[in-house]
Amino acid sequence: MRPGQILVSLLIALILPRDAPVSAQSPEDLRSVAHRYVAAVAAMDYDEEQRFYDAESVFEDPTSVRFGDPWQLVGGESIVAFFRDTNTEYRTLGIEMRILEEFASPPFWVGTIRSTVTSCGVLTGDQQKSWTGVIDMVMVLELDGAVVRRRTDWADYAGAAETLDGIAAEAARRPDDPRCVE
Predict the structure, then answer these.
(1) Which residues are within 8 A (CB) of 60 and not within 5 positions of it... i.e. 6 or more apart?
(2) CB–CB of 155/136 below 8 Å?
(3) pLDDT tens readout for residues 53-92
């Protein structure tokens, strides 16, 4: 077992309820569902993303406390609305989510993901220029068939903050991005 898998196994042991049902899904099935889900989220395909949720699905990000109360949403419609509204508010142009490492132990899939997000400069103050930031995260999906019962993210938002700090001075010298000009 690789060191990353040991860490992931420990995480699963900590979050898995003692009476959790045993999943009939194979690790390969979990990986397939997880890859389709991550692709839908990255593509900002909200209709496809919605198909992975039901009324009891949960999204939580304990590390989002740096922005106020930690994010915790219940229900597929609420989860999709959150991502749609956030991407609209920050004028997100594109997201690339690269799975760096993954581990599946039914009913859980755990992936370390590097998200590269490009958006218009809402956070830099110059909305006619685009910027790209990197957010590394560990995503844990509890799956039941093709339904995401729970998604928990542990994100390192420091990378995006460093990008913003570094780009602020340089932003004035960059040309306007035609995708950002209203």
Answers:
(1) 70, 71, 72, 73, 150, 151, 152, 153
(2) yes
(3) 999 999 999 988 877 888 999 999 999 999 999 888 888 8
* pTM of the predicted model as reported, rounded to 2 decimal places: 0.80
For the sheet with 71-74, list strands across it. Answer: 71-74, 58-61, 147-156, 126-144, 108-121, 92-105
Residue pLDDT, tens place only, 82-110: 999 988 888 888 899 999 999 999 999 99
DSSP state of 64: G
Q: Measure CA 59 to chain center.
A: 10
The angle formed by the CA atoms of residues 127, 71 and 168, to the nearest 5 degrees, is 25
Burial level of 30, CB count in 10 A (0-12/13-18/19+)? buried
Residue 71: phi and psi, rounded to 5, are -75, 130
Residue 108 in tokens: 């859980």
